[in-house]
Amino acid sequence: MIGNLDVVTMELQLAWRNIWRNPRRTAVILTAVIIGVWSMVGLGALMRGILIGMIQNNIDTLTGHIQIHQQAYPDDPAIEHSISDPETWMSAARDALPAGSRWSQRIRIGAVVSNARHTRGAILMGIDPAAEARLSFIGTAVTEGAYLADGDTGGILIGRALAQQFDTRLGRKLILTAQDSDGEIVSRAFRIRGIYQAEMADTEKGFLFVNRQSAQQLLKLGNRISEIAIRLPAHEMAVPVANDLKARLAGSPLRVRAWPEILPLLKAYVEMFDTFILIWFIVVFVAMGFGILNTTLMAVFERMREFGVLKALGMRPGRIVRGVLLETLLMLVLGIGAGNLLGLATCWGLSITGIDLSAMAEGVAYAGMARIITPVVWIRDLLRANLVVLLLGLLVCLYPAIKAARMTPVAAMRHH
Amino acid sequence: MLSIPVKMAWRNIWRHPRRTLLTTLAIAFACVLLIFMLSFQFGSYEAMINASIKIHTGHLQVQAAGYQEQQEIRRVIEDPRAVHQALAAIPEVDAHAARARAFALVASQERAYGIMVEGIDPAAEAQVSTLPRIIRAGAYLAPAPDSEDLSGALVGYLLARNLRVDVGDELTILGQGRDGSVAATVVRVRGIYRSGMDDYDRGAVQIHLQTFQEVFSMDAAVHEIVVTTGRLTEVGPIQRALAPTLTDLANTHPLVSLSWDALLPGLKQAIAMDLVSGAISYVILILVVAFSILNTFLMAIFERTHEFGVMLAIGARPARLTRLVLMESAGITLVGIGAGVLFGCLITGYFATHGIELGGASDLFRQYGIPNTLYPRLTVVTVTAGPLTVFFITLAAALYPALKIQGLKPVEALRLT
Asked: A34, A119, A166, A355: which to substitute to probe chain B, counting the most B Cβ within 10 Å?
């Protein structure tokens, strides 16, 4: 046992000395590995950050982690597909929610908003102000005026972009027109209590917030609602908790969906990015793989005589292969270690303020991204980057290693 | 006949065929990848731009100033005929069509939605947009409103589903006219279209421009005149040719012409962002390649110190040796780039004619107007930009070892083996 350990220490020592025989050459190839790994970690974290930003953005903007609707509502969001008796269902579902979850009841119905000069379509959100504030962006988004108060049946919150388009301001009135549960067109005036700002102008134009009771009254809904939105303590819980809820609510007229189901495009995006990150890792590896192979080949060819002598002295080919691979391994570990440190430091530096893309706000909105990108380091991405470099690097160097081991003593002696 | 230094450099390059091969392969790999990626990016941009332009936006639009930002019903082009006349006189203009639009409550038997109602001139619209070709049920609008029956309307398939209407059903439109009066009419669904872009397929109802103008008290006015042309590059000249007419025309809000990138600022910025982030990754990739081949260049010097000593001793000047070494590096780089450009063009060219199936991701791409099959665009820019950058960065890497020679002393160099 001790003998074994001694051998390993000796081999390591030998390999370490060998890689520093030509310090400049090792330094150059290390630089290639470091830049490569640094870019893998850095760009990987940036892409992950963009993705997380997109998910966060969507979840904050009224999606939540899980939504519960009447069966037909997701395909046909019409007023007759409302949930009756939401309290009963909620109490049945509550046990399935982990501690720290928040939920809220909402009305979500298409409506027309107008004033004397302007008209446009928008989504009318009937919310419970206190519960909603803990769930979605709206609780902290009001920049002018005030958030909706409980029991304020005549107040409405609108987005900044809509206020600009409608040439209106706090205290003015807007008319909401919609179809009530009997199919009749109804309308009512609301007074602007607050103006909110959102990540995207489309959100600011598209959503109007009133108290749930006033929406229910206007639309003759009684206590029926459109949806129950749930926010969980972590993104990853969404699917398992949704599955649990589905099981509990099986047989009910309700449909439970987690965010990947609500936003299939976002899910497709996440999957595409995942593949893309891996492809990028491999591309960067191939770029440095040529250098790693070339450098190892040079190092091996310079030492052919040495390998010949070793073999003449009775060293088995397997040990030569191991020796060469160990040198590669040491070099890779050094490069990967430094690359990771550098990459993490860069991510840390960038995450202090984040990368502000507000100057490109419209492009950012078009791509569905968040305005500020913060790199996010995922252990999984980090592991993948490191494994790609380490395993493929060793695989590539198998060729020079075998080349060295195959050298016959006689041929090697002739090698100058 | 090749000069002696070139011959020498070429022979030196192939002293270590394996090493040279690996180095050229690294360079070729970078070139192939860059050519393919850039062509792919430009191909997808073109698909996105064309899709947006052809489905709805056109290459440029004439509008009243401020309409693009505000979309108020009263910001109109009062005399569209004069604009049409001016456009007809510009040879680069392929087609032009007027549109008007307003928000309204559109109700079917069962449902009502607040959406955009758009007045189009069916015959002219067919020239500027793909609308007539994406009808999936029913038919495109007749050239003029039916005097016997209700005026016709087109709806997107998503909106048709939401409204629960089919071809032949009636829709009630209730909105506010240009003068503030109530605008109300009933139209009959004549066709249902599907563009693949969800926002468009759920966002609007198209009716006859003539009907729209009557119902919304528009008189002869319209909101935009869409212009299409053969190429993106002709947009500028058309705008310049149109400018005098637009300034001369009396209009309450002055008339302006807006090019596609002003009409779709998000698309343009998204393309710019994609290009910048692409450029950053490519430069990093080239740096990795440069460092991984730097050793080849370095070894070309260190293995030959003795040889250089001999050459210096028999009277070669250091500058000449530097030139020789640089020529060798440039030779390797050029061979690599040559191979890379060749294979890059072959591979990209293959996909440019056969297309790349997007498979599972196509739902996602369709929202940006990218069709199921994407064709990379092989252009002078996409073929040269990457390899040129590779060339310069690689040469910069080769400069360091080549300059090392300058400090070489013959006697010391000879002592080394």
From this structure: A119
Q: Among B114, B164, B294, select the one facing A120 at the smallest CB separation.
A: B114
**Contact (CB<8Å) A268/B72:** no
**Beta carbons of A363 and B270 less than 8 Å apart:** yes
DSSP conformational letter for B222: B
Reduce the DSSP state of residue A258 to 3 states and report it: strand
Domain extent for A342: 2-58+266-414
In a domain, B122, yes or no: yes
A70, A219: one domain = yes
A114/chain B closest Cα distance in angstroms: 9
Could you say which of A231, A258, A285 is where a domain stops? A231
Question: Kind and range of the H or E element at B207?
Answer: strand B204-208
Instruction: Classify residue A284: in a domain, yes or no.
Output: yes
* A101 CA: distance to closest CA in chain B (Å): 31
Domain boundary among B225, B253, B281: B253
Q: Is residue B313 part of a domain?
A: yes
Task: Identify the CA nearest to A298 among candidates B90, B56, B301.
Answer: B301
Among B72, B273, B302, select the one facing A367 at the smallest CB separation: B273
Assigned domain for A23 exists? yes
Query: Cα–Cα distance between A314 and B213 in angstroms, integer?
Result: 99
- Looking from the CA of B348 toward its CB, the CA atoms found within 13 Å total 26
Alpha-carbon distances of A179 from A98, A119, A186, rounded to whole Å = 37, 16, 6
Query: What is the Cα–Cα distance from B97 to B111, expressed in whole angstroms?
Result: 31
Q: Would the ipTM clear 0.90, i.e. be above it? A: no
B153 belongs to a structural domain: yes
Structural domain boundaries, residue B285: 4-53+267-415
User: How many domains are there within chain B?
Assistant: 2
The shortest C-alpha distance from A308 to chain B (Å) reads 21
* Residue B75: count of CB within 10 angstroms of its CB: 20
Whether residue B48 is found in the same domain as residue B71: no
d(CA B120, CA B98): 7
Q: Decide if B114 and A165 are in contact by the 8 Å CB cutoff.
A: no
- For the entire predicted model, the pTM comes to 0.83
Q: Which of A37, A366, A372 to mutate to test the interface with B (most CBs of B within 10 A)?
A: A366
Query: In terms of domains, do B131 and B222 share one?
Result: yes
Q: What is the number of structural domains in chain A? A: 2
Q: Is A120 helix (H, G, I), strand (E, B) or coil?
A: strand
Cβ contact, residue pair B291, A31, below 8 Å:
yes
B-chain residues near A365 (CB < 8 A): 266
Quote the minimal CA–CA distance from B89 to chain A in Å: 35
For residues A38 and A146, membership in a common domain is answered with: no
- Put simply, whether A178 touches B (Cβ < 8 Å) is yes
- Whether residue A115 is found in the same domain as residue A218: yes
Query: Phi/psi zone of residue B71: left (φ > 0), alpha (ψ -120 to 50 degrees), beta?
Result: left
The residue among B221, B253, B285 that closes a domain is B253
A289 within some domain: yes
Contact between chains at A294 and B112 (C-beta distance less than 8 A): no
CB contact under 8 A, B295 and A290: no
Tell me, yes or no, whether B260 lies in a domain. Answer: no
Question: Using CA atoms, how far apart are residues A303 and A301, in angstroms rounded to an integer?
Answer: 5
B48 phi and psi angles, rounded to 5 deg = -65, -45
Q: Are residues B212 and B321 in the same domain?
A: no
Q: Which residues from chain A sit within 8 angstroms of residue B29, using beta carbons?
A: 286-287, 290
pLDDT in tens, chain A (416 residues): 455 778 888 888 888 898 888 888 888 889 989 999 999 999 899 989 988 888 888 888 888 899 999 998 988 888 889 998 888 888 888 888 888 899 999 999 988 898 887 888 899 999 999 999 998 899 899 999 999 999 899 999 999 999 998 889 999 999 998 888 888 889 999 999 999 998 878 889 889 999 999 999 999 999 999 999 999 998 888 999 999 999 888 888 899 999 988 888 888 888 888 888 888 899 999 999 999 999 898 888 888 888 888 888 888 888 889 999 999 999 999 999 999 999 999 999 998 888 888 888 888 887 778 888 899 998 999 999 999 999 999 999 999 999 888 877 777 767 65
Look at B102 and A24 and tell me if their CB atoms are within 8 Å: no
Query: Domain check: are A53 and A71 in the same one?
Result: no
**Are B229 and B360 contained in the same domain?**
no
* Domain membership flag for residue A165: yes
